[in-house]
């Protein structure tokens, strides 16, 4: 008969739970004994039943194994004071490294601004010059890109306004006529009074009488 797989959950039936506890307890103690004999290991097992009854197995001495376990835990656990000192030293080292980086950045900033250049060698000055040239090139490239983007935006706005103007003209049946600059320049000028055909005469003295 094939036994089904046991589900890992609490057995609700009290009788079945007690039977299972007895079987598994004996199996565990047997495995502990076999491990101590076959592998020459120091093994200690402590079991409390649901009713509080103690079951134990020790390959040598239960008390001796427990004391050995306590000593081992004490040796493995690091001292709190030592850990705090190590953490403090690590934090101090990180703070010192950060201060050096900040100082280096401040020196580089002053050099880029043209300050504190006295101790610089020719090679350092050339490096600063090259760095400034690269920065200027990057700034100019970015400026040209911004200009192009603005021009494209203006073109898009022009297209939108032109489309709206056309739509309004078609809606109201109005076709605005705009004369070109050339047509405006070719318009005839009005004749001035200087070119008038009217002749005038100026007489001095009494008016003449016609016969």
TrEMBL record:
PROSITE patterns tied to this protein: K_BOX, MADS_BOX_1, MADS_BOX_2
Domain K-box, residue spans: 88-178
Alphabetical list of SMART domains matching this protein: MADS
Transmembrane parts of this sequence: none
CDD domains: MADS_MEF2_like
Entry's localization field: Nucleus
Pfam families membership: K-box (PF01486), SRF-TF (PF00319)
Coiled-coil ranges per UniProt: none
GO BP term, pick one: positive regulation of transcription by RNA polymerase II
One CC-aspect GO term: nucleus
Tree of life domain: Eukaryota
Main location: nucleus
Region (Disordered): 169-211
Protein name: Uncharacterized protein
Taxonomic path: Eukaryota, Viridiplantae, Streptophyta, Embryophyta, Tracheophyta
